[in-house]
């Protein structure tokens, strides 16, 4: 897989990414403000948004925010590519350092009604730390 950082508001894939984020099956888990989100991404030095390609096909994205050696992560695999092991592979690659980001821990918050994501993160080695209003929080510590 190939990870490409969005560095400009002129990135040609932004409209497609927004349309995927706005699908009901995704917007209930990851909600973005179309007008402000990518401005925030490209202007903030601690925020990274990578497009994920498999064989030159855009299959998903990952949003990362760094704070004090902790990476806060949101993963999006496009609907037509879900169920094919991409989520697991992406998380494994990120935990193994494929992104040029300096972190010791990764934290994610997953809705308790999203069993597929819960299973993937647990399978890769994330540890449940707490629950908070329908969200289950996990942490992964680099070995």
Summary keywords:
143 residues; alpha+beta; 7-stranded mixed β-sheet; globular
How is this structure best described in words?
This protein has 143 residues and is of the alpha+beta class. Helices cover 27% and strands 36% of the residues. A hairpin with a 2-residue loop joins strand 6 (127-132) and strand 7 (135-141). The mean pLDDT is 91.
Show the helix and strand layout.
Blueprint: E1 2-5, H1 14-21, H2 24-27, H3 37-43, E2 47-54, E3 57-67, E4 70-77, H4 86-95, E5 105-111, H5 115-124, E6 127-132, E7 135-141
Parallel strand pairs: 4-5
Antiparallel strand pairs: 1-2, 2-3, 3-4, 5-7, 6-7
Helix pairs in contact: 4-5
Strand content of the residues, in percent?
Answer: 35-45%
Unreliable segments (pLDDT under 50, ≥5 consecutive)?
Answer: none
Average the pLDDT over all residues and give the rounded result: 91
What is the subunit arrangement here?
A: single chain
Order of secondary-structure elements: EHHHEEEHEHEE
Measured on Cα atoms, how large is the radius of gyration? 14 Å
Strand order of the largest sheet: 1-2-3-4-5-7-6
Q: Into which percent range does the helicity of residues fall?
A: 25-40%
Q: What shape does the CA trace take?
A: globular
The SS-based structural class is alpha+beta
What is the overall number of helices?
5
Number of strands: 7
Largest sheet: 7 strands, mixed
What separation lies between the terminal Cα atoms? 23 Å
């Amino acid at each position: 897989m190939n990870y490409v950082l969005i560095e400009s508001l002129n990135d040609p894939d932004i409209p497609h990414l927004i349309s995927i984020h706005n699908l009901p099956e995704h917007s209930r888990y990851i909600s973005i403000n179309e007008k402000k989100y990518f401005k925030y991404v490209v202007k903030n030095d601690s925020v990274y948004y990578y497009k994920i390609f498999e064989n030159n096909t855009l299959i998903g994205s990952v949003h990362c925010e760094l704070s004090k050696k902790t990476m806060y992560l949101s993963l999006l695999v496009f609907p037509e590519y879900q169920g094919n092991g991409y989520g697991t592979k992406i998380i494994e690659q990120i935990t193994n350092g494929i992104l040029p980001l300096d972190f010791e821990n990764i934290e994610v918050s997953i809705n308790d009604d999203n069993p597929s994501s819960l299973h993937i993160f647990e399978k890769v080695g994330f540890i449940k730390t707490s629950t908070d209003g329908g969200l289950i929080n996990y942490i992964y510590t680099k070995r």
